[in-house]
Amino acid sequence: MQHASATIPGDHRGQHAWHRQPARPRRIDARHPARHRAQFGRGLRFPAAGAVRISGRRPVAPAPAALYGISKLAAEQAALRIAQLRGTDVRVVRLGPVFGPWELPSRVRDALSPHHQIIKMARDGVEVVLPRIMAGDWIYSRDAADGIARVSRSAGLRHELYNLGGGVMTDLPQWCAIVAGCFEGFRWRMADEDVGNIVYGLPKDRAALSIARLQQDTGFAPSRDLAAAARDYLDWIAAGDAQ
After folding, report:
1. Mean pLDDT throughout 166-195?
2. CATH code of domain 2-238
3. What's the number of CA atoms in the CB half-sphere (13 Å) around residue 135?
4. What 3-state class would DSSP assign to 130?
5. What are the tens digits of pLDDT across the range 71-110?
6. What pLDDT was estimated at residue 49?
7. How many CA atoms lie within 13 A of 48 on its CB side?
8. CA-to-CA distance for 148 and 120, rounded, in angstroms?
């Protein structure tokens, strides 16, 4: 799988000197599509996973205005064009907002999901102040992995592009209410005059992705509701897998 997502910007990223360094060109080697196939084995395809979001049921030509979205769309188009030239079966998976196991900080992702931040604050005894409800079609990471695997292995795919989201809208007040039932003394509230202490890169909430294509062609369905995802996530953290 080729991950076609760009770097996720954090509100505090400008504090780090390495973010101010000029970008260095990287060479993309498109000469060996068989190498990508080998990652999955015979009969499996090469999904290019990114997070450019298109909502609604009617086809809409994407027109991102920010460099973040522009780079994602360009990566998709490059992958599909290389597939045409090299005879490689490439499908694009557009990911909705993801949270859950294996989400770890790195040099290219310094702002983790709000769900991760809230659990960390609950464990540290810090009050959570939400700047807004941050509603979205949040998808649990295990379900995201399942959806990508289905695209890789399904024989009856009829489209180049598949959206992969949670299928329903949830928000952070719902998540906080669930977390409050797991941590005694956990406190959270909506921001009033203050700006909140949960970092999220998007200035406003977006509509859910339509996952109808994915459901029809692969039988995909999210396996956990928000409460079940929270229980599984906390079990994963308690087992030490988050270290």
Report:
1. 95
2. 3.40.50.720
3. 6
4. strand
5. 989 999 999 999 999 999 999 999 999 999 998 888 877 7
6. 63
7. 24
8. 28
